[in-house]
Amino acid sequence: MASLSLQHHTNYFLSRALPTRLKPRPTFSVRMSLQETGPSIAVVGITGAVGQEFLSVLSDRDFPYRSIKMLASKRSAGRRLTFEDNEYVVEELTPESFAGVDIALFSAGGSISKEFGPIAVQHGTIVVDNSSAFRMDETVPLVIPEVNPEAMENIKVGNGKGALIANPNCSTIICLMAATPLHRRAKVLRMVVSTYQAASGAGAAAMDELELQTREVLEGRPPTRKIFKQQYAFNIFSHNASILPNGYNEEEMKMVNETRKIWNDKDVKVTATCIRVPVMRAHAESVNLQFETPLDEDTARDILKNAPGVVVIDDRESNHFPTPLEVSNKDDVAVGRIRQDLSLDGNQGLDIFVCGDQIRKGAALNAIQIAEKLQ
């Protein structure tokens, strides 16, 4: 009960302190989601952190559906879940699971996506995949709806054809939500990103480990280390993705390659350093942008204030800028610390600081926004 009470007070404080677009959604709306005219949906990986967030976002956005399947591994099959006042039984994921399914939301890991994604497509299902399995496949659109919806404009429910659509990496989504409006105005030539990534990016087990380690360290006990090799509580370390021959890790190269694909610009220069920090569920990123055309900070601030899915928190007088806590459980990506890069002459560069909820906009919300455009 203590943790529930703390969350209640935290949400109340945030609702009083944040800009309107970042306030928590009301909890007393009437749900109109279950509709005979809506698509049939399957959620693959329903018991994971992102799978559960899929359900939360579907409900929050009143996403219309005529039926929904809860799919997971054999280990989780048989569990009962209540969603929008209806009880569902979790079903084991099998090749037959996609019969009659219009849209499948996948978040069960790359190996599951590679095995079952093509099977679902053969059934005529449109797969929105949250893993990295298909992101760099030239035949698969990699989509952020606010950034490049045209990449999937020919894929629609009801045309009788299955398809794959890839959800970008969470860090890429959060970064490009802020960088793209500026890129459209002044064309980014080079982008340098440093990330500060939350436990949620490594799943529910990593979030549990951070909470457990925090208690253990405060009590003077050795921290339990099952998910990460390093102590996570009260520490930061290089992202736990595998190191590649070029010295970058896989997470960093995802940002490089995915940005080029989403922007359809193979020449844009991108470099990234990805760090894991002891934050529960929202990523932060320091982004340095070098432009082809001069762009001053006041114009940039106005552009970002009018960008969809972006909110500006940039109060220099009170030293108030985006924090992971403020964007946790929120849809919008927050941007602040907007300032000229003093190392470049002639307004050719900017520094910005970006925060976004990794589970929400960095995963579930982005996928469901894609699904909304399929109808």
Describe, in short, the structure shown.
This protein is of the alpha/beta class and 375 residues long.
Q: How many H/I helical runs?
A: 9
Q: Tell me the name of the CATH class of the largest domain.
A: Alpha Beta
> How many separate domains?
2
Helix and strand sequence: HEHEEEEEHEEHEHEHEEHEHEEH
Shape: globular
Please list the strands of the largest sheet in the order they lie side by side. 10-11-9-12-15-14-13
Q: CATH superfamily of the largest domain, please? A: Dihydrodipicolinate Reductase, domain 2
User: What is the strand tally?
Assistant: 15
CATH architecture label name of the largest domain: 2-Layer Sandwich
Any idea what the radius of gyration is? 21 Å
Low-confidence stretches: 1-21, 23-30
Q: Determine the structural class based on helices, strands and strand pairing.
A: alpha/beta
Average pLDDT over all residues? 92
Helix content: 25-40%
- The name CATH uses for the topology of the largest domain is Dihydrodipicolinate Reductase, domain 2
| Fraction in beta strands | 15-25%
Major sheet size, sense and barrel closure: 7 strands, mixed
Q: Span between N and C termini?
A: 41 Å
Written description of the protein model:
Pathway: Amino-acid biosynthesis; L-methionine biosynthesis via de novo pathway; L-homoserine from L-aspartate: step 2/3; Amino-acid biosynthesis; L-threonine biosynthesis; L-threonine from L-aspartate: step 2/5. The active site is at 170 (acyl-thioester intermediate), 283 (proton acceptor). It catalyses: L-aspartate 4-semialdehyde + phosphate + NADP(+) = 4-phospho-L-aspartate + NADPH + H(+). Its EC number is 1.2.1.11. 30% of the residues lie in helices and 22% in strands. With 375 residues, the protein is α/β, with parallel strands linked by helices. It has two domains: 40-168 and 364-374, 3-Layer(aba) Sandwich (Rossmann fold); 171-357, Dihydrodipicolinate Reductase, domain 2 (2-Layer Sandwich), CATH 3.30.360.10. It has a seven-stranded mixed β-sheet with strand order 10-11-9-12-15-14-13. Strands 5-2-1-6-7-8 form a six-stranded parallel β-sheet, sandwiched between helices. Strands 3-4 form a two-stranded antiparallel sheet. The protein is globular. The protein starts with a helix and ends with a helix. Residues 1-21 and 23-30 have low confidence and may be disordered.
